[in-house]
Amino acid sequence: MISVSGVSKSFGKSKIIKDISFVAEAGKITGLIGANGSGKTTTMRLISTILKPDCGSILVDGADAVNDPSGARKNLGVLFGGDVSLYNRLSAWENIMYFAKLQGMSDEEAEQRIKILSNLLDMDKFLFKRVTGFSRGMRQKVSFAKSIVHNPSVILLDEPSTGLDIYSIRDVQDFILTCKEQEKTVLVSTHNMHEIERLCDNLVIIADGRIVRNGTKEEILRNEGTDDVMEMFFKIAEGSD
Amino acid sequence: MFNDYILILKKELTDIFRDRRSIVTLFIPVLLFPLMYFFMGTQLSGGNLTENIPCIVDCRTDGDRELYEAIFDGTNMIEEVDIQEDKYTDLKKGGVYGIIEIDNGKITVVFNQNSTKTLTSMSLINERVVLFSNSLFQQSLVDQDVDFEALDSLDYNGAMTDLSEIISDTGNSMMASIAPMMLVMVIMSGGVSVAVDLFAGEKEKGTFESLLTTQVSRLALLMAKFTAILIISLMSMVLSIAAYVISFKLNPSALGMYTGNLNADASDLQIITLPQVLQVLLVCFALSVFAVSVMTFIGINAKTVKEAQSQSSMITIIPTLLSGLTMFMDSANISDASMLIPVFNTIASIKMVFLGTVQPLHIVLSTVSCLAYSGVLWFLCVRMLNSEKLLRG
Predict the structure, then answer these.
(1) B181 and B36 in a common domain
(2) Per-residue pLDDT tens for B231-288?
(3) Among A8, A1, A71, A64, CA closest to A30
(4) Chain B contact set for A73 (CB, 8 A)
């Protein structure tokens, strides 16, 4: 579970995040939705311990991300901004293994886990090839695998399907649903309304650094008097201006 | 933390050595230096021409022709060349080293000061003419029963001799001025592309952000990446020194660190002594640590690869400028304070080692100051790495 309570963050004089609070539950997929510059990525970075909040608390599966960032990172798997960046001169296997060992896994543990992930993400054909020349879809799968190789209980995904073709989007979304079945906490930041429709159980809608709606998808749709996610988003965004 | 350090270091070295560009860059000095010094040596040894100097001889009268023959009689010094286009144009184009013009007994030697070979040859011709003139003068004194030896009470002959002509050769001074600069440039630029890739490159690709969400400590990350760049920089330094040794072997007369004998071969070489090699290695090692610290600092602070590359290119220009300074300084009397200027102190130290004028204090000041500046840069790097500005555009 992720618990964010009264968190604010400023860069210089500009306040980017303004007193936000929400909870992302285990076994649920929570969508963090907002326009560009609304504060989604900063929120993700705060939860992933890369940034420190000015005030408030963040708990990642019970670990205090502010005072014990290392403890929080043990439970976290993070994929940033459609992160398809890998070490091109290493193979997919070497890339994933490198991150597995940085997360403190033994060789045997890592090997077993990579085999499972390779199977789940359909990577067997290219697992031992160097990453140079991989398609974006292949790279995204490897990035996914390296982010969650240590089997974290909390997964943060920032724009997970950006730039992917339709088959890769399906594979990635299926994988996210598998994580949900495994009772993991999944927080997805996305612009893709179809993705929200298909994946998300709960929504946290953020505008100008503030949370403007927070609840189950059905609840928010009902309150806005629509069953279309895109229409709902525009209604809320225009109402918050 | 140590396990993480080793893990990251191993990964970085694997990544670097799988990049063909890095390998080629490392070996460029080994291929380039011997070729370059071989060429320079050939040019220098060509400057010692004493026979068959190709010249245009322009005598106005038969008497002038007789005078020319009297001066150069019995020598193979001049090889007369026919005018092809115009005598001055021929000299400018090369192939002709000089023009000897004699007009009613007045001798003029025309040369091209832009050519080393012409300059050397013309000074030899000049000496020959002066010698002939002196012999004529002596003969006329003898003819008048004057004891010319009594007149020659001062055995001076107006001669000034450069010390380097007595205890060394041209190559040695060239070696002392060019080699330190080349060596320092290699050290300063050896790890640049790797440093840019390891910090700014990872930031731009986004892998740095991924690394920061793992269990690894930021200090281990910095230390491992720093060590990887330092290894490349030191390899580049060692290969450059090896390239110099190959250059000595191939062309001892142009580059030799021996004394006096222009016809010496490789077996006569007193290639710098072991203490001198150790002194050069010590100051070069300290400079490598300093250079890698600068590159790391630039890499961590730059937002993009392009920004890091443009800032790094500055550090290859600085050694060139500073080595220019050492050319105008009296290397035997460099002040202790100036040995605290990084890069300059290394160039000056190597130069002094090659010229045999180095003082232990200078080596100590040079080494310690470079390491101290590296410490300051390290402090700033650690601060930056722990700062939130690290990933902000």
Answers:
(1) yes
(2) 988 888 888 877 777 776 666 655 444 433 434 444 444 455 778 778 888 999 999 9
(3) A1
(4) 213-215
Q: Say whether both B247 and B371 belong to one domain.
A: yes
In this prediction, residues A165-169 reach a mean pLDDT of 82
Residue A93 has pLDDT above 90, yes or no: yes
Q: Does the pLDDT at position B331 exceed 70?
A: no
What's the rounded Cα separation, in Å, for the pair A183 and A26?
Answer: 6
- Distance separating alpha carbons of residues A156 and A31, to the nearest angstrom: 10
Do residues B67 and B27 both lie within one domain? no
Please name the residue that has the structure tokens 């690869």. B305
Domain's final residue, options B134, B160, B186: B160
Q: Is B207 on the interface with A (CB under 8 A)?
A: yes
The answer to whether the CB of B70 falls within 8 A of the CB of B78 is: no
Is B7 in Cβ contact with A101 (below 8 Å)? yes
CA gap B346, B290 in Å, rounded: 11
Q: What are phi and psi of A189, to 5 degrees?
A: -100, 125
| B7, B212, B216 ranked by CB distance to A50: nearest | B212
Structure tokens at B282: 């010590």
Does residue B170 register a pLDDT over 90? no
Own/partner contacts of B181-184, CB < 8 Å, gap of 24 or more, are: B181/B319, B181/B320, B181/B323, B181/B326, B181/B347, B182/B29, B182/B33, B182/B240, B183/B237, B183/B240, B183/B241, B183/B244, B183/B280, B183/B284, B183/B350, B184/B287, B184/B319, B184/B323, B184/B343, B184/B346, B184/B347, B184/B350
- Domain of residue B90, CATH code: 3.40.190
For residue B44, the model assigns a pLDDT of 56
Alpha-carbon distance of B75 to B191, in angstroms, equals: 57
The order of strands in the sheet holding A63-64 is A14-24, A2-11, A55-60, A63-64
Alpha-carbon separation of residue B185 from B67, B69, B197, B319, B346 (angstroms): 54, 53, 20, 6, 11
* Residues B329 and B371 occupy one common structural domain: yes
Domain end marker among B135, B160, B185: B160
The domain containing residue B90 runs over which residues? 53-160
Q: How close B216 comes to chain A (CA, Å)?
A: 6
Q: Which residues contact A128 (CB under 8 A, 6 or more apart)?
A: A91, A92, A93
Are B174 and B64 within one domain?
A: no
Reading phi first (left if > 0) and then psi (alpha if -120 to 50, else beta), residue B316 is in alpha
Question: Which of A50, A87, A98 lies closest to B213 in CB terms?
Answer: A50
The per-residue pLDDT of chain B, averaged, comes to 78
Please determine, for residue B320, whether its predicted confidence score (pLDDT) is greater than 80.
Answer: no
Same domain, B213 and B307: yes
* Encoded tokens for A233: 């988003």
Task: Based on the fold, state whether residues B381 and B333 are members of the same structural domain.
Answer: yes
B221 interaction partners in chain A (CB closer than 8 Å)? none
Of all helices (H) and strands (E), which one includes residue B98?
Answer: strand B98-103
Domains, chain A, with CATH or none: 2-81+134-240 (3.40.50.300)
Contacts of B51 (CB under 8 A, 6+ apart): B76, B77
Work out the average pLDDT over B334-361: 83
Q: Are residues B224 and B299 in the same domain?
A: yes
How many domains is chain B built from?
2
How far is Cα of residue B336 from the mean position of the Cα atoms in its chain? 23
Rounded Cα distance between B97 and B121, Å, is: 7
